[in-house]
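Final report, closing paragraph on structural work. Over the funding period we assembled a curated collection of sequence-structure pairs, and we close with a single example.
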Amino acid sequence: MNTSLFVPILLGKEDEVREELDVLGLADRALTVLDPNDPERLSRLSQALHQLRGHRGVTLEEAHHFVEDPLLQAALMVGLGEADGSVSGCVRTTGDVIRAGLWGVGVAHAITTVSSSFYMVLPSGHGRAHDVLTFTDAGVVPDPTPSQLAEIAVAAVRARERIVGDEPRVAFLSYSTLGSADGPSVERVREAVAIFRSLLPGVTAEGELQADAALSPEVALTKAPSSALAGDANILVFPDLNSANIAYKLVQHLGGVRALGPILQGLRKPCNDLSRGASIEDILLVGCITALMAD
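Its predicted structure, as stored:
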């Protein structure tokens, strides 16, 4: 782990963590290790959780039980300003990570939908204009309404501006391209595009588009010659969780693309998730993304 990228704080039994660090050749690194079972720590964090969730009926005794979970401890540390962000999930579900984030950090101002993006890092020599594509939402909202879909896209734009730093170009995907077909899901995407444009009028966005019209200038010239994107999208907004989750896994496993995430969107401070198949390098890279998202 390269500690010049960010300063890691590890939660775990110190002797076990230090032993594993020694095996990895990292024993000499200046790392902070906190024991999640430390009584003083449990008492302090249970008090903090009770203050945050007492109005929801969480008693102090229940709070003490909940904070025994290191996942929630990490989120509370972020919420309390003791850490700038958290990374977890390689042995826990996305639902667990989101729940901890909601309890320990809470949602961002004016946000009603917590969602996620995968950052798809294309292999060298791919020949496209962008090295990284944003796929959203591939991890949280199963069947978004038009307003939720628009809010997911807004969150993806704001996150990409911090993480990648390029100009966001948003394609709302469908099986239809600008009126070539109709149906309830197509209409939902069209409504989402209209809402998105009212929220972020300065961001280049188009929809509904088929994926090839969103990503190929040649196809866009034929299917969507009037599109402002012209086949050069870098944020792909999928109509539902099914299509997004299937798409990112297909691209990852058949296209040799690295998938980083799920990067959670809509929380007050960054609490990011990992795929349960995450490698050591994936964890490091999501840690770097989290650092970029931090204030």
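The chain has two domains: 9-106, 115-258. The mean pLDDT is 92. We thank the funder for supporting this effort.
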